[in-house]
Amino acid sequence: MAWDEWEQLKADAATRQPTRTQLNHLPPEPSGGGGNPQGDLAVNQTDLAAIGDAAFELREHFGQAGKHARAASQKAAGGLKSQGFALGGALDHVASRWIDQCRSLLDATAHISNHLDFTKGAHAGDEVHIAGTVSSIATLDAGFSERKSS
To answer: What is the value of pTM for the model shown?
Structure first.
């Protein structure tokens, strides 16, 4: 391609509409989307409670099973080491990594359960605040309506 051709292509491109990023999307629905007047995401307290309960139950059961597995692995590792098997050291290493991974999972499930409890309380507080604000507006509107009709 010659230099003149390149310059001509650049000039042609510059005269056209500037390039913009365009994201594909669906046109907005009259109801606000998804058929749900409040949006697509809907979670109720029953759903949150079930997830929190499942996380708590997983934590309890896995905590017990993890302790049992750790104890059995450490006992086996000790027995293998005492008999001179190199595998004993490797099993001991695996058992210590197991302990770390168990703690991580137990912490994560506790975090999920605690966060859902916090979320439930925060949203309950939001609901009280919103209800108070809306009722204040309704009272104010009623006052204007009374003055208008007098």
So the answer is: 0.47
